[in-house]
Amino acid sequence: MTRTILSNKTYDSRWEALDQRISDFIDFVRNPPSTLRDPDDFGRTYAFEQLHRAAVRLRAFANSYLGYFDDFRTHRPPDGYTPEYAIALGLHQIGCDMEVLEQAAQQRLGHPTLTRISAWKTLYQADVMARGIIEIAKPKFPQELAGTTALVYFQKSPRFHGMPYAPLALTAIPYSAIRQPQDLLATPHELGHYVYQSLKNTGKLSDLRVLAEHSWVGNWTEEIFADVFGYLVGGPMVSESLQELLLRHSYTSFATANFHDTHPTPILRPFIYNLTLGKTKERLSTGEETAVRRWNDKKSKKTSDHKRKRAETVEAVEETVGSADEQILTPLGLPRPIEELISTAAYKPQDEKPVDYLVNQILTKLGIKKDMGKTDKEAMWQAKWAPSTEAWGKGLSDETVDQRIKAVFYEDYDKDLRKTLEPDNPRDMPLDEHPWQTWLNKHKKTEWLELVHAEDWIEKPPDNWPKTG
Asked: How many helices (H) and strands (E) does the chain have?
């Protein structure tokens, strides 16, 4: 492939350095080291082939992207912007993508040692889990997820990395998962982001709406989608593992929303899982009722603990957060009752409440209809490793969440994952010689700046971008 030559020589030299790096990486992963030919390579040969195909797509996409915006006579930037703005953002994102691809490759290299084998095994097990989740979703969205495969890599925390030019769901898992498998339970949520972006790019989510008087809830749309998807796949175990993380917040952040946060206020999030469960059930069993009530009990205890500590240190303080009827502080600075925003007692979504209204629409997009009745078992997409809500709830009376996760998840996890989790017969990601044109067609009516800031690839920078430090 001939490299696009940019008109600005300084930026062209930057692109030349990146392009050479991509080319070297393609050559490397096309012919990986002989150590990958061990009798059990922990899925590394397959992983290297997918990384090779992703890098080929990246290089083709990057060449076309940079050539498109360098042709500033045809594609004129709006007032106040120069062609270099788009070029700089593109080079930055190309570098980000290469960093992740190289991480995923480097973490699968080296001579076998006990430490490396443990890490390789974790990566492979998480690969299998991730591909199993995508395979569960494919029958629901055969066109949008066609050809998709999945890989993971280690990073400090779970994160989905979007690459719209490749049908590769690339997800970060924390290093701690090597010793604590429950740290993989964010994976269904993170893959929910991949499904969201895949549906959004094909216009399947264009009619999602929020209630006008609570328009700020729209900032949470993608995260709520990922929460709903995660529950459909992972069930109550995923919900309870999230609860343990949410309770670590200070009470102020636990019950305060802001305009800039794309995540729902922590105190609200487990109720999203409860609404998802309720939409797939005609009635809840005893074990399910127990699971639904648990978050009410936990957040009430956190609220009462907060009030008690405040009472011990401050006299006659007028609370705006955590009052008797449990409120959150909205981005408008107004305290509102939680029950006004999301159902906490009932488990059926009620459309007059803004979060319920959005959850209901998302469930419909995911094929969960109203009043499913006796078809509720078909509604949940649960993976083989995910316990049912009834089975999960039964063990919670005399076990902690951590003990329960170990009882229902670790036992299978520590065995041969290929036999105990989803079948793993992965196909190679297809090669595409024109990934830029495919992507551009999805954004064909988009203005210059909107195309530059397209969030399925480039995260929108702050107004003063670029900045140092």
From this structure: 19, 5
In terms of phi and psi (left: phi > 0; alpha: psi -120 to 50; beta: otherwise), the region of 94 is: alpha
Question: For residue 84, which of 7, 4, 2, 16 has the smallest C-alpha distance?
Answer: 7
Residues 6+ apart with CB under 8 A from 284: 277, 278, 292, 347
pLDDT tens-digit series, residues 121-176: 899 989 999 999 999 999 999 999 999 999 999 999 999 999 999 999 999 999 99
Q: Is 459 within the bounds of a domain?
A: no
Dihedral sign computed on CA atoms, order 99, 104, 109, 112:
positive
Task: Let me know whether 52 and 167 are in one domain.
Answer: yes
Residues in the chain: 469
Q: Return phi, psi of residue 170, to 5°.
A: -100, 115
Residues 6+ apart with CB under 8 A from 348: 275, 278, 279
Q: 366 phi and psi, to 5 degrees?
A: -85, 5
Tell me which residue range forms the domain holding 44.
Answer: 9-201+425-452
> In this structure, are 30 and 162 located in the same domain?
yes
In the chain, the number of structural domains is: 2
How are beta strands 335-337 and 159-161 bridged, if at all?
A: unpaired
**Distance (Å, rounded) from C-alpha 438 to C-alpha 433?**
10
The rounded distance, in Å, linking the Cα atoms of 385 and 125 is: 12
Task: Kindly provide the residue ranges of all beta strands, DSSP E only, lying in 175-209, ordered along the sequence.
Answer: none
Q: Are residues 162 and 249 in the same domain?
A: no
Are 432 and 147 in contact by the 8 Å Cβ rule? The answer is no
Task: Say whether both 67 and 156 belong to one domain.
Answer: yes
pTM score, whole prediction:
0.89
pLDDT digits (tens, 9 = 90+) for 211-245: 988 888 999 999 999 999 999 998 888 888 888 88
How is residue 155 written in tokens?
A: 């990073």
Element (H, E) at 364: helix 354-365
* 254 and 152 inside one domain: no
Q: Using an 8 Å Cβ cutoff, are 61 and 436 in contact?
A: yes
- Is residue 177 located within the same domain as residue 265? no
